[in-house]
Design brief:
The chain is α+β, with helices and mostly antiparallel strands. The chain has two domains: about 120 residues, Protein Transport Mog1p, Chain A; about 130 residues, Protein Transport Mog1p, Chain A (3-Layer(aba) Sandwich), CATH 3.40.1000. Strands 9-10-11-15-14-13-12 form a seven-stranded antiparallel β-sheet. Strands 3-4-5-8-7-6 form a six-stranded antiparallel β-sheet. A hairpin with a 2-residue loop joins strand 6 and strand 7. The N and C termini lie far apart (about 65 Å).
């Protein structure tokens, strides 16, 4: 049996057996597909720091294992109906789903492995809402009796309770703690430090890696209008000021040339509902269909985009 090679980052190399051509080769390819599927499930089970994913059912008394499923990039749509694009845009590898049963009660653990810690942070911020941390979970989290949402390293986790009226929160916490023991910690980038602190609405912070995340904040145009390319990351947050609430998006680029190219592309492909009211060398001001204003300005290698401003005066400041 060929061994899996443990990488330094906690992942595994999957050795690829040679495949011959012709009819025999077709049969071997089918076998290979089944082998690789099994390896993916095995890798999901053995990854960690001395613990296994998914955890055994002994995290609390009287629980037993139910169905286990693994979804990878190609079939994520089979698991997340209508929301898979956001995960894929941030950088998705696989999700392990394990169900646990105790009588009529059921818990489900979902462990999403993302491509890096930034991708996991992006999904977490999009999904967590106003954070209400649950005590005794040794990772950033938010939760209530029906669901825990957790971030650690490149992993985003849900623990769900499908037992209306049953108080299973303490057991959900035990399951989460057991799962987190098998998840390596990693640091994400300090993207949120790009956002000025003064006036920032707590819990409104987001990061953006492509058009799907951007559309959830504001429609500037179709496609990858900020030239992020799935590699660059923007930070966004909501603000309060004397003139009213507004939104800030900060996009750092590798250099001034890249920032200038992105500015030109955004201006040329601005959404048709946005009407430019003022232009300057390094930016422009626009008005949307709600009579709110926006301003785009290049500052060196950074684009600063202010949205939902109350007046043209605010936009020109």
């Amino acid at each position: 049996m060929t061994a899996l090679t443990d990488k330094a980052d906690g992942r595994f190399d999957f050795p690829m057996p040679a495949v011959n051509g012709g009819r025999a080769g077709t049969i071997e390819k089918l076998k290979l597909g089944r082998i690789l599927a099994a390896v993916l499930i095995l890798a999901a089970a053995v990854r960690g720091q001395g613990r296994e994913l998914p955890p055994a059912a002994d995290f609390a008394p009287d629980w037993s294992l139910g169905e286990k499923l693994v979804f990878v990039k190609g079939n994520l749509y089979d698991f997340i109906d209508g929301g898979a694009d956001l995960y894929l845009e941030f950088g998705f590898e696989r999700v392990l789903v394990q169900r646990y049963k105790k009588g009529e009660a059921e818990l489900t653990l979902e462990v999403y492995e993302m491509t890096d810690a930034d991708a996991a942070l992006g999904i977490y911020l999009m999904k967590c809402g106003v954070e209400t941390p649950v005590p005794d979970i040794p990772a950033r989290n938010t939760g209530e009796p029906a669901q825990l949402t957790i971030l650690k390293g490149r992993y985003f986790l849900h623990v769900n309770s499908f037992s209306p009226g049953a108080d299973l929160l303490s057991e959900m916490v035990l399951l989460a703690r057991r799962a987190l023991e098998a998840v390596a910690d990693e640091s994400h980038g300090r993207w949120l430090d790009l956002l000025p602190v003064e006036g920032l609405v707590p819990g409104s912070e987001r990061i953006v890696r492509g058009p799907n995340a951007l559309q959830s904040i504001y429609t500037l145009g179709e496609g990858d209008v900020l030239f992020l390319g799935g590699r660059l990351i923007a930070a966004a947050g909501d603000y309060r000021s004397e003139s009213g609430p507004w939104t800030l998006v900060i996009v750092p680029y590798p250099d001034e040339a890249a920032a200038s190219a992105a500015l030109s592309h955004l201006r040329a492909h601005l959404d048709s509902y946005l009407k430019v009211t003022d232009e300057r060398g390094d930016g422009f001001v626009f008005k949307d269909f709600k009579e709110k204003y926006g301003a785009v300005e290049r500052k060196g290698r950074v684009l600063e985009i202010r949205l939902n401003l109350s007046s043209a005066f605010d936009a020109l400041q």
